[in-house]
Amino acid sequence: xxxxxxxxxxxxxxxxxxxxxxxxxxxxxxxxxxxxxxxxxxxxxxxxxxxxxxxxxxxxxxxxxxxxxxxxxxxxxxxxxxxxxxxxxxxxxxxxxxxxxxxxxxxxxxxxxxxxxxxxxxxxxxxxxxxxxxxxxxxxxxxxxxxxxxxxxxxxxxxxxxxxxxxxxxxxxxxxxxxxxxxxxxxxxxxxxxxxxxxxxxxxxxxxxxxxxxxxxxxxxxxxxxxxxxxxxxxxxxxxxxxxxxxxxxxxxxxxxxxxx
Length: 261
Prior knowledge:
Helices cover 54% and strands 2% of the residues. The protein is built from six helices and two strands; from the N terminus they run αββααααα.
């Protein structure tokens, strides 16, 4: 808002004291390290905007990561108290971990469906990926949605959860944007995808159970005269045979009564 009043010619180290700057800029936060300014943009990186990459979340409380967290606190205390800075950075970590946990749970559900060959079209019209790639689960290339990679709808949702939604949620938290990216572009879509994936998983497994019951009934079909079925429940053939036998016995009894009379 007041950028037109700042002196953009002064070095970054003098931006607040001599440049009239009263709000952070990208360079002010990212190029600062322990009071010094340079073009190294990764000296304080901890999450790298990709929380789903294996090893990053497990390393977030390590000595290496804690040292970088302390460096971020130095940056934040140019404008804020140390207590506020540490509290917010802890909020960022916990929020990112919460989004990561929801993604991982959804990913496990879809990955299990893939292992069982239950994703839509997986056994019928899932075309092979272009060489030299081999067929697999949740490839990054499938984000394009092209027919040649043929991802299932919920498989694509998992890809979007970590490549887009989770990254946006973390970036929103890291840049103190609670309404826009954190919720609207991050947590909201993550929750929506999570619900849709769980719903699809329920419907797929209900359909599998139903198909298994149909297959069992079709495999157990017998003649109406077959009374030797071994099924725990009365088969249609056994029931029909029983009814025919009962009718025959009744007919014989009726004829005997008729002769006697």
